[in-house]
Amino acid sequence: MSATDLAALRKAGTPHAVLDVREPWETALCLIPDSLTIPLGTLPTQLDRVPSEGPLVVVCHHGGRSMQAVMWLRSQGYENAINLSGGVDAWARQVDPTMTTY
Questions:
Q1: Which of 29, 50, 61, 88 would suit a FRET pair with 98, their CA atoms being 20 to 30 Å apart?
Q2: pLDDT tens digits, 59-102
Q3: What is the pTM of this model?
Q4: Hey, what CATH class is 3-94 in?
């Protein structure tokens, strides 16, 4: 999913969840509003916090870690997991230019 697709989903009010798998120091710099934050390394121990219904958009800095998370989540039965292409960096550049980048 692209950043602009996610923005359109949010604007339309379509129920969804955003799962940010970056480290705490990264989410302290910038965060898509209303994101659930679970660092990738702790995801297996916090799976009970991950919504299983509706689109689950997984985000990291540029899209690599979130793609790993999506593949793992799908192997766990989360067919609703979708990678945010370009990550929070794409969100900042294409949707919210006021967001801090790093």
A1: 50
A2: 999 999 999 999 999 999 999 999 999 999 999 999 999 999 99
A3: 0.96
A4: alpha beta
Cβ(61)–Cβ(22) under 8 Å? yes
CB neighbours of 30 closer than 8 A, spacing ≥ 6?
Answer: 88, 92, 99, 100, 101, 102
57 by DSSP, 3-state: which?
strand
User: Are 52 and 81 spatial neighbours (Cβ–Cβ below 8 Å)?
Assistant: no
Residue 94's alpha-carbon distances to 9, 37, 83, 85, 97, in angstroms, are 15, 22, 16, 12, 7
Active site (annotated) includes residue 30: no
| Helix count and strand count (H, E) for the chain | 4, 4
Region 37-42 average pLDDT: 98
Please tell me which residue in 6, 56, 57, 60 is annotated as part of the active site: 60
Using CA atoms, how far apart are residues 22 and 37, in angstroms rounded to an integer? 7
The domain limits of the chain are 3-94
